[in-house]
Design a protein that fits this description.
Layout lengths: L8 H11 L3 H21 L5 H22 L4 H22 L17 H16 L2 H10 L4 H15 L3 H28 L1
Length: 192
């Protein structure tokens, strides 16, 4: 699920205030809540736990004005309820996908094509065009998988002394510039 969080800063501040009036305590609860939601999605076999965690926060952000005044109880429970709904939605999507188990595949296996090689060449070339700091950040960001990925990204954010959300925005911007660079590179290669 390729997506990026679209929570406006003022909604994010309201979420923090809703979690706890003390900003530091709220920040700790926020980090723990993100971690807990990602674990819930992972435990339920969701393909993109981090993306679903973002989606849960996006959905709450859209209703935060109303929730602050009407919801009674621990706000984290509301987030978990949203997560449960997202899991149900994911399961519905999975049921609508067709299994490829019974499809006869051609006997000839696809080998590395010129197109794949061009893509890899362009990726390497575009990575070299980035500053060392940006290149190291994007490589580190995508270095791990599953739960290790979530933990590693939290550690990266702590090392950089930024929030995980800010880290995501930085990586998103780097990735977007890489995509543009790769597309230009591939276009040049096809014109040759």
């Amino acid at each position: 699920m390729a997506r990026h969080s679209a929570i406006p800063p003022e909604s994010f501040d309201e979420i923090l205030a809703w979690l706890d009036p003390d900003r530091d305590v709220a920040a700790s609860k926020y980090v723990q809540l993100r971690h807990d939601l990602a674990k819930i999605f992972t435990y339920n076999g969701c393909a993109d736990p981090e993306g679903l965690t973002d989606e849960a926060f996006d959905r709450v952000a859209k209703k935060i004005h109303e929730l602050k005044s009407t919801y009674e109880g621990d706000p984290r429970l509301y987030f978990r309820g949203v997560a449960n709904n997202l899991i149900k939605e994911e399961f519905k999507k999975v049921k609508t996908h067709v299994s490829l188990d019974e499809v006869d595949l051609p006997a000839e296996q696809i080998t590395e094509t010129e197109e794949t090689t061009d893509l890899e060449d362009c990726l390497q070339s575009c990575l070299q065009e980035l500053s060392n700091e940006k290149r190291d950040l994007i490589i580190a960001y995508y270095a791990k998988e599953k739960q290790a990925k979530i933990d590693h990204r939290s550690e990266l954010a702590q090392q950089l002394r930024i929030s995980v959300g800010t880290l995501r925005v930085r990586v998103y911007r780097i990735r977007e510039s890489l995509v543009e660079c790769i597309e230009s590179c591939l276009e040049r290669k096809t014109q040759q």
